[in-house]
Design brief:
The protein is an alpha/beta fold. The protein has helices spanning 2-13, 24-28, 50-53, 56-61, 63-74, 83-93, 108-112, 138-143, 169-181, 231-236, and strands at 18-22, 97-102, 117-119, 122-129, 135-136, 156-160, 184-188, 209-213, 225-228. The strands form two sheets. The chain has a six-stranded parallel beta sheet with strand order 3-2-1-7-8-9, with helices on both faces. Strands 5-4-6 form a three-stranded antiparallel beta sheet. It is elongated, with a radius of gyration of 18 Å. Bound molecules: zinc ion.
């Protein structure tokens, strides 16, 4: 392990164009459950299956039930950035890390101080009226029971990419360009099985792919460095 940390440390020292691509594993260390893991949300009992409840069609047809589940399981306002978020923010402030691409919707990278974060699946902190477009803070969504409504009477919808919905084109293009241009690409806390997000890796041509994950990944043969373990603990050692 210490050799691997040393190798990681050297690659970071030698680069000023690093991109980090992260998944649910980055947030689990802040106490946010990974809803795709076996102990995660998908295996919990609810009236409807979670995959169905966080779909666009369910949002449109069963908005109150959607919000019930969403408030209960998807929003974790007490969560704080962990060692991984803090180290990445530090690398950004030092001019080494150019961008973060994340599949998480919890805003913890920004809370840690990271500036350029491509949120592929949106953010719980942005909410809009579907009728007039007025933005609302997450508190508005949390404070009322039932369906949160705009002053104009329209339904407020979180800016979170639900199943059946496309990713935001601008975010996708920004993330693609950052990965295309990256010298070092660090992929952490993701099992790389969520498409289309995982397909972004195909755009990387830097030849210095680093994978940090608790379990084995399908892309390991393409990586110059693979470290199995907790992303927070590993980054903290740098
Ligand atoms: Zn409105």
């Amino acid at each position: 392990m210490s050799d691997q940390i040393e190798a990681l440390s050297k690659m970071i020292d030698d680069s000023d164009n690093i991109v980090f691509f992260g998944g649910a594993g980055v947030s689990t260390e802040s106490g946010i459950p990974d809803f795709r893991s076996t102990s995660g949300l998908y295996n919990q009992k609810y009236e409807f299956p979670p995959e169905m409840m966080i779909s666009h069609s369910f949002f449109m047809s069963n908005t109150a039930e959607f919000y019930c589940f969403y408030r209960d399981k998807m929003i974790h306002l007490d969560a704080k950035p962990n060692a991984a978020h803090l180290k990445l923010a530090e690398l950004g402030a030092n001019g080494k890390l150019k961008a973060i691409v994340t599949q998480n919707i919890d805003g913890l990278h920004q809370m840690a101080g990271s500036k350029l974060v491509y949120e592929l699946h949106g953010s719980i902190y942005r909410n809009f009226c579907m009728k007039c477009g007025k933005p609302y803070a997450v508190e508005r969504v949390m404070e009322c029971s039932g369906v949160p409504k705009c002053d104009c009477g329209g339904v407020i919808k979180p800016d979170v990419v639900l199943y059946e919905e496309p990713l935001d084109q601008e975010v996708w293009e920004g993330a693609t360009l950052a990965i295309e241009d990256a010298d070092v690409l660090i992929v952490g806390g993701t099992s790389l099985n969520v498409y289309p997000a995982a397909g972004l890796l195909r755009h990387y041509r830097g030849g210095k792919l680093i994978l940090i994950n608790k379990t084995e990944l399908p892309h390991e043969r393409n990586a110059v460095l693979v470290i199995h373990g907790s992303i927070g603990e590993i980054l903290q050692l740098l």
